[in-house]
Design a protein that fits this description.
Maf protein; alpha/beta; single chain; seven-stranded mixed sheet
């Protein structure tokens, strides 16, 4: 049974967001322990997610969920991409650098997408389930909104006429790239637990019949 999962991150915001998206499903999500710091040298979001998940599992002996996400801007050739969290040291500086690079790019040419890959591994680091999620939008000329974190204040979603940071958390947790990637993983965990429960019930029934 999968009852507790360590999230392969030192970012408490990411853990809280995953908890909110998952809802009350009987799974405890916890942050990676102090000292967690894998070398993210994968060539894709999925590879980095697995690197993180495997290290967290081997550190803790627990099921682990790795998450790698980033912002891909068309006018920047898909950058910052894998380096979104390392683009600058702080979220404010990352946003300022992004807007400065795009300052001469007109509206209509500022398309972008948030991408998230997630990998669930067992306590030995074996991959059990991987999933991707994306949400499409564009980059604003200035930050708007105070919800969320990271690049949310400059990521505009046309269908809602708001930036990610202007959305309520309930709405964000339904449509975000992280929600899209997490949902198949949650479904896998629930199916896995149901299968184990059924096996246990059959074993108990068989034992009762022997007596």
């Amino acid at each position: 049974m999968i009852k507790k999962v360590v999230i392969a991150t030192a970012n408490p915001n990411k853990v809280e967001e995953i908890k909110e998206i998952a809802g009350d499903i009987g799974i405890e999500f916890v942050c990676a322990p102090e000292g967690f710091g894998p070398v993210e040298n994968g060539e894709t979001f999925m590879e980095n997610a697995y690197i993180k998940a495997r290290e967290a599992a081997l550190m803790t002996g627990m099921y682990a969920l790795g998450d790698d996400s980033g912002l891909c801007v068309d006018a920047m050739g898909g950058a910052p991409g894998l380096y979104s969290s390392r683009f600058e040291k702080t979220a404010k500086n990352r946003i300022n650098k992004l807007l400065n690079i795009l300052k001469d790019v007109p509206e209509g040419k500022r398309d972008a997408k948030f991408v998230c890959s997630m990998v669930l591994v067992d306590p030995e680091g074996k991959k059990l389930k991987g999933a991707d999620g994306s949400v499409f939008g564009s980059i604003t000329t200035k930050p708007k909104g105070s919800n969320g974190f990271g690049y949310d204040p400059v990521f505009y979603i046309p269908a809602y006429d708001k930036t990610m940071a202007q959305l309520s958390l309930d709405v964000k947790n339904q449509i975000s790239h992280r929600a899209m990637a997490l949902q198949p993983v949650i479904a896998y965990i629930l199916r896995h637990n149901m299968y184990i429960q059924q096996k246990m019930k059959k074993a108990v029934k068989k034992s009762d019949n022997l007596h």
